[in-house]
Design a protein that fits this description.
Layout: E1 4-5, H1 12-20, E2 24-26, H2 28-38, H3 42-49, E3 57-62, E4 70-78, E5 81-90, E6 94-101
Amino acid sequence: MQNEKSVPHYKLIKIKQLIELDKYTITKIAQDNARLDFDLSVKEVIDLILTLNNTNFYKSMTSIYNHTIWQDVYHLNINKDTAYIKLQIISDESVIIQFKRK
């Protein structure tokens, strides 16, 4: 059962700190989607994520595979499209990044 809430589960500043420390993973499908949907490299995806602020927050939701794992969803306008970005911290040590066209 998937849950949702309207406040971030993770502090965006913590996500950015982990990313700046190179403690992140971008899923293979996110890399492919960023390239195919937006013509973005991994570095460009990271640069865009570092520009996120709280106004980009959309919702928090639990993983469809594990209701104890929360994912924060952000929307970011890129040209005329909107990116759907899911961020999740694992064990306070790493950020998992998912990225696709909304």
